Amino acid sequence: MVATSRRTTRQESLPGALARAEREIARLTVTEGVNEQSHETLARLMHDLGERVKELNCLYSISNIVEKKDISLEEILQGTVDILPDAWQYPEITCSRILLEENLFQTPGFRETRWKQSQPILVKGQQIGALEIYYLEERPIKDEGPFLKEERSLINVIAERIGGIVERKRASEALRKSEEQNRAVLSAIPDLMFQIDRKGTFVSLHEGRFSDQRTFPRGLIGQSVYVLAEKGLLPRRFIEQGLIHAQQTLLTGRPQIFEQHISLDGTGRDFEVRMVQSRENEVMGMVREVTQRKRLEREILEISGREQRRIGQDLHDSLCQHLAGVGFLGKVLEKKISNGVRVAAEEAGEIVRLIDEAITLTRGFARGLNPVTLEAEAFMVALSELAANTERLFGIRCRFECGRPILIDDNIVATHLYRIVQEALNNSIKHGRADEVIIRLDTDGRTNTLVVKDNGHGFVSGATQGKGMGLNIMRYRASMISASLDIRGDDERGTVLTCSFPNRNDG
């Protein structure tokens, strides 16, 4: 009885166990399916992660290229092109290129196909090129042809970064060129230039040619300008005068100019100082030596006074005496007529002749004051007459040569050139003891050349230093008409003066 009961219970539990087993099998089947799905998801995520790592490596590599010192824009773009294929799905069949204005950068073996991804390169909103990716073989269709949407985002980012790189490189190059140009301009400025603040502290300093006269100590920036007086480089009164004008510049906002005569190494020198406000509490100043200019100004005033005295003497000794004689003859003639004495025609004719001579003398004085008339061809005539008069007055051979007509319609230019030749003739005769002088006027179409050549003792450099200012006056006159002046000894004998000036009548 007991055995039968046990057998019945065992039979009844078997279906339950089977059901339980079936449920477990179903559960395990579901779990296995989930695991397979998880493996697929994990594999996909790992693939996507690998693609993102490739993209990050690409951007990181581009950044490394850009950060290299002294690398050119061309090297950056070519390096970027070489990196790009590894960031796409199929690097083994990927090629790329960058079109930048007229420049082209591409991977080796580049070839255009119909599987293309492209993005414009913009600088300040203007398209200057394009970034292009090509697949050399067909691949499954994805988000954008065979390309992924993430690759579209990547090419957009890279194109934008390239635009930024180009803009920064161009700005940097423009800044470099500007700085080089500024340094070149600054190095060509001979003046002493400085920048000081309201308290008189140096902010910047350009010594210019002033360093030829004074050696400035290093480390002046941040120090007071009075250190120049303490070291004996400049007189204290000069510095104090400068600070007064600097304060006035900051107070009014207007440029200030003053001149100062100081002694350097026992030699008197004249300086002009100009000051302008550069920042809210800073002044920029320029110190220019004007000793030569002041000396020329004094010499010109002296020449003017000397010429006035000479003209007065000439008028007194010649024309006034001549007119006095005419007046005396006129009085005699007047008395004869008033006394009823018959006057011969020859007496009146003598007075007329003397008056004609006075007119001729007056014209001579006028020609001396204004040797070149307003006609364009008058310069050649004036030089020809000057040569003839020099030959007649000084008993030397002097001739004027001009191969073809050279017209100068600017009376100021012509007068300065005439005075230069006059001074050159004076030097040739007085200092060079020449007995032959040739004045030559020539042109090559764009530049006119005026040459005065003599056979005197020759030109000795520095011989005119001191009281003689003839050469300086000639150079000053040349600078007034944008001409160059060269004076040197001839290879054989004598001196050659060459004055070159632009031909304004060309074309």
Oligomer category: single chain
Low-confidence stretches: 1-12, 462-467
Which bin fits the share of residues in helices? 40-55%
Main β sheet profile = 5 strands, antiparallel
- Structural category is alpha+beta
Number of domains: 4
Using only C-alpha atoms, the radius of gyration works out to 48 Å
Counting DSSP H or I runs of 4 or more residues, the number of helices is: 10
- Proportion of residues in β-strands: 15-25%
Number of strands: 14
- In the CATH classification, which architecture of the largest domain applies? 2-Layer Sandwich
CATH fold-level label of the largest domain: Heat Shock Protein 90
What global shape is seen?
Answer: elongated
What is the ordering of alpha helices and beta strands?
HHEEEEHEEHHEEEHHHEHEEHEE
Mean pLDDT across all amino acids: 81
Cross-sheet strand order for the largest sheet: 6-5-9-8-7
Query: CATH H-level name of the largest domain... which superfamily?
Result: Histidine kinase-like ATPase, C-terminal domain
Report, as a whole number of angstroms, the end-to-end distance: 145 Å
CATH class categorisation of the largest domain = Alpha Beta
